[in-house]
Every structure is written in C-alpha cells, then in structure tokens.
C-alpha cells in the first residue's frame, strides 16, 4: 500500500538550471531522429516524476503546473488512492477486452457516470480511450437514434483530431490544414461570445437557431454538439441563457443535445459539469481528461433510449474502458468527493479572478477575463482595441516557462492564456504561480 510517496518532489517551484536544462535539451535532440516532427512540445522539459502540482524534470527543476496536462490531472499527481487502485489492478489483470470477457469496474464507472451527469432519467454509457473517440461515438449514436445526419457545431469549437472530429473542430492551423477531405454534414454556426458580440444569451441563441433553421432545417439535424465552456477555442463562456435556449430548441425539435464536457467536466468549473451552472440537462455528455486522473479513459453517457437504440455490437473497441483506467476513474471520483474538489475549484476561481482583475487595472492589454472555477483565462488584445494579441500571449507563456511555471495559450487567434491548475494546488503554490504570471504580463507590457 502506498500511503505517501518519498518526498523526492518538493512542494515548491525551484529552478536550478536554465530551462530547458542540459539533460532535457539532450533528450530533445535525441527525439528528432525518431519522433515525428508533427508533434510539438509547448515546453520541452522532460519529466521524471510529479507530485501534487509540481513536476520534477530530468535536470532537477521543480516546475509549477498550472495546466494539469490540459485539464487532466485535476486531482494532482501521485494521488495515493489512484496509485493503490492502479497498482492492485495491474497485479490482478491489465486487459481482457470488455467486449470479450467483462469485469465489474466497467459497470461501476458507468454507474458513477449515470449518477453524476445531469438529470435523473435512465442513462447508459459506453467507454472509450480518448476524447475524440467519445465525440465520434456520440455522433454515431445520435445519427442512428434519430435517423438524421446533420450535426451542428459552433465557431471556435474543438472536438478532436480524428477525421470526423477535425471536421467538428473550427480552427484550421494546426489541426486541419491539408488533412482533408473532411466528413460531410457538419454545419457551423455562431457561438455566443459576449466579449466580441455583445449579445445576450437569448439574442445569440436566436441568431444560431435562425442560422440552423434557414441553412440546414431542424428536421435534418441529428445533433447539436457544444462545449458549455469552450476549451481550446479560448475559454469562451456563452452569455447566460444561451445554453438553456439551445437546449429547449433541441428538445422541441427532436435534436440530440450533446454537451462536450471533456475539458470542462469533472469538478473543473466548480460543478461536476459546466452545464450544471444553468441547470441544463443534455441528452448526451462526452467526458474524458479529468475523469481518470491521468489514465486514458473517455465516455459517452446518454439517455438510455438513445444509447440503447444501437444494434448489438455497434459500439466498441479493443481497449475502451480498460480495467486499469476504470479503477483509476473510480479512485479519481472518490478523491474528488472526499476532498471536496468542487468547493476547492470555486475557491481557486475566486483567487485567480481577483488576481487577474488586479493585473487588468495595470494594463490595457487584458481585454477580457472569463471562465469559471479552476478554468479561468485572460484574452489579450492590442491596447485600446479588441484586436487579438497573440504575440503577447506567446511572450507571457515563454516568460512563465523560463521561470518554472506551466501556463497554456489557447484561442482561435492564439491570444488567450488559460489557467487549469490541479484542484489540489495549495494557496501558496497558487499565489506563487500568479505572481510569476503578473511579472510576465508586466515584462511584456
Ligand atoms: N473535446 C472539449 O478539449 C481535447 C487537445 C490537445 P482527446 N483538448 C486538448 C491537442 O492539441 O490535441 C478535447 C477537448 C474537447 C474533445 C477533445 C479531444 O480529446 O482526448 O485529445 O482526443
């Protein structure tokens, strides 16, 4: 039993070499011969070990993680519950393929998903390996269950890198460029983006619905797929009322409302799911990332009558719902409950928002601060305008990296800096990270 790890990873940020250090640089040289150049690294320091919110690199630097591996390690690194569950499962068995000979943990994960996702209706789930795979399967099920083909997606959306999910994703570079042809029957409409469109939720929903009705036709639409708070697209939070209005329109028109909660789900926003904030009940929810504490696991959870409309054998995959990933998910969900990480996400949201608002008073470069819970971002603009300022975002991220802090950029124009700290980050660590970020903004300003 692991109760605590040897304290080889400190609890503080500590930079002992230039970054990346010599060992990381050597590894980075070595990778060039064998790793496809199509994969980049935002910050090429090579990691040896991690604990809580700190990553220890091969050169002995302790890096403060404000990205959680893109919203994955929400419960932090080296969590004893996950280590124990995974270790015991590895010793018991690592794989049988659920489609061949099943096991209990798969059912338990689906029971948890039925309980935690919004709505008290009967729900069933199917488990997969990655977020993109979950989104693809949600669309498959919605098309089969409705007998319709069109899928509605939004400006700035991100749903993955497979062929169908590239088509669902909005941004060309780097995700789609020259990778076509893309899957047909995907229609993109305007997102509610209060900072840029100034519309109320009701107005933005009316605009989207009118676009759908005039260019696609409600009766042709299988599914409306939306990130309740957009991730890669720039942490765009739709105006209050937008999601409820779309949800009502979908149920009035027999359209499946799919909430892609892959980045926004599992405590990240201070609710189990971002749609909970306005009481929206999707017909289907896709989850991944934070669900399994760093193990690859994704899910589609939906109304039983939709999910069960699929013929026997119509859903599956060799590894989906792998037993090691399944027990990691159970341990992760338990940790979220036991440590009240919902409450902690809200506290983090207050601390981060207050710090960013203070910073905004010093510089006209921060056009907007938005997000919810531990999913907060600032959108950078040319001072006095709303023109996206991607160069500033890049310089700020670089400064943070040079000082041992991981911060991630996002946004269709690359001008948004998002913070996705592990929810177990301490107040001291968070204050330290925010002070580096403030120095970074001032240095660029
Ligand atoms: N839906 C909302 O955020 C993944 C992508 C990183 P996968 N976001 C990180 C990159 O550049 O590839 C994501 C998401 C939302 C779907 C996905 C896709 O999840 O597990 O990366 O396939």
What does this structure look like?
The chain is of the alpha/beta class and 445 residues long. It folds into two domains: 22-78 and 340-444, Alpha-Beta Complex (Aspartate Aminotransferase, domain 1), CATH 3.90.1150; 83-338, Type I PLP-dependent aspartate aminotransferase-like (Major domain) (Aspartate Aminotransferase, domain 2, 3-Layer(aba) Sandwich), CATH 3.40.640.10. It is built from 14 helices and 15 strands. It has helices spanning 22-34, 68-71, 80-92, 104-116, 131-146, 163-168, 194-197, 201-215, 242-252, 304-307, 323-338, 341-362, 390-402, 427-444, and strands at residues 47-51, 54-57, 62-65, 123-128, 150-154, 186-189, 221-226, 256-260, 284-287, 298-303, 366-372, 375-380, 405-406, 408-410, 416-419. The strands form three sheets. The protein has a seven-stranded mixed beta sheet, with helices on both faces. Strand 1 (47-51) and strand 2 form a beta hairpin. Helix 4 crosses helix 11 (323-338). The longest helix has 22 residues, at 341-362. It is globular and about 60 Å long. The protein starts with 21 loop residues before the first helix and ends with a helix. The model has no long low-confidence stretch (mean pLDDT 97).
